[in-house]
């Protein structure tokens, strides 16, 4: 690949949200009061990776700035959304890459869902445990299923470290645990 002179195509604020300081800010805003229930750094890394994969090969999101080729000869937006060109100028110039449309085509909430984290109270509730031993039962079940804590955060009241578990991992393990659904010793469902 030959060298291509690059230039700024503008910042996250120019294209996506002019009230935002960047990806991290938009993530915390989108998650709102539930931001602490997610691994926001992992969401940012995955969202950035998805954005860069969706952009043309010679355009990238670096920090909070979009960088791309400086000269028209190096731009090929074939197959990518472009902004409308002013009436009468269609034959003279190609529309600029529509970065906002590309970013909006990525499912942010799908990425966020992969990084949701539950505390043991939420896990116990999902597993159907109730009463004073619910949390202990949930911990034992997680241990048997091989689900480990992915993070520790201070408890809101005591300040002690509180284990956090990946929600999708807990849900998948719970769905596949013994006693859930049809018996595993039968090859075909019984009528």
Helix-strand layout with pairing:
Blueprint: E1 6-11, H1 12-15, H2 23-31, H3 40-54, E2 60-62, E3 65-69, H4 99-104, H5 108-113, E4 117-118, H6 120-127, H7 134-145, E5 151-154, E6 161-166, H8 167-175
Antiparallel strand pairs: 1-3, 2-3, 4-6, 5-6
Helix pairs in contact: 2-3, 6-7
Give an overview in words.
The protein is α+β, with helices and mostly antiparallel strands and 191 residues long. Helix content is 36%, strand content 14%. The chain is built from eight helices and six strands. It has helices at residues 12-15, 23-31, 40-54, 99-104, 108-113, 120-127, 134-145, 167-175, and strands spanning 6-11, 60-62, 65-69, 117-118, 151-154, 161-166. A three-stranded antiparallel beta sheet has the order 1-3-2. Strand 2 (60-62) and strand 3 (65-69) form a beta hairpin. The N and C termini lie far apart (63 Å). Mean pLDDT is 87; it is low at 89-93.
Q: What share of the residues lie within helices?
A: 25-40%
CA radius of gyration: 24 Å
Low-pLDDT ranges: 89-93
Alpha carbon gap, first and last residue: 63 Å
Features:
single chain, alpha+beta
Can you give me a brief rundown of this structure?
By secondary structure, the protein is α+β, with helices and mostly antiparallel strands.
């Amino acid at each position: 690949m030959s060298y291509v002179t690059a230039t700024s195509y503008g910042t996250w604020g120019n294209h996506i949200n002019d009230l935002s300081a960047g990806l991290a800010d938009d993530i915390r805003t989108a998650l709102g009061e539930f931001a602490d229930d997610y691994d926001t750094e992992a969401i940012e890394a995955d969202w950035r990776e998805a954005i860069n994969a969706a952009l043309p090969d010679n355009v990238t999101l670096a920090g909070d700035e979009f960088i791309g080729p400086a000269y028209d000869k190096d731009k090929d937006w074939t197959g990518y959304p472009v902004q409308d060109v002013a009436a009468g100028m269609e034959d003279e110039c190609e529309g600029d890459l529509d970065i906002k449309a590309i970013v909006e085509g990525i499912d942010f909430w799908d990425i966020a869902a992969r990084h949701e984290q539950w505390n043991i109270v939420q896990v116990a509730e999902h597993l159907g445990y109730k009463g004073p031993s619910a949390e202990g039962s949930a911990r034992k079940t997680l241990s048997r299923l091989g689900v480990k804590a992915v993070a520790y955060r201070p408890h809101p009241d005591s300040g002690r470290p509180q284990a956090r578990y990946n929600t999708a991992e807990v849900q998948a393990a719970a769905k596949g645990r013994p006693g859930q659904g049809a018996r595993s010793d039968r090859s075909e469902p019984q009528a």
